[in-house]
Amino acid sequence: MIRAVQLKKLRAISKYVLRCEGQSRASSVEIIFVGPARMRELNKKYRGKDRVTDVLSFEAHEENYWGEIFLCRSYLRAQAREVGVAYDAEVARMTIHGTLHLLGYDHMKLRDEKIMFGLQEKYLAHFV
Question: How many domains does the chain have?
Fold first, then answer.
């Protein structure tokens, strides 16, 4: 079960990134935790990839609403163990990652990956 206090912290992290990226308008981001089956379904439907992933972001086209960030809890737990970080730190990292995607960043090209991942780690350092 995701605690309300954890969701509040993750929303604050996302808003921090938005502000740092020059998005000062009042806005909200929905953070949704899903299981691996749902994450796989979303990944297949919207990205054409039939596998589970850690985070997916969906930009909204509404005033004061940036969109949705889907996080797969079990995937993130395993990923945190694999890279040797605390689960909460990995969830924060992927919340930042998802927020950067909402802002239009991607990591399809090496140059873009360096920029996006550099920002991701810079913002993460503020919280862990």
Answer: 1
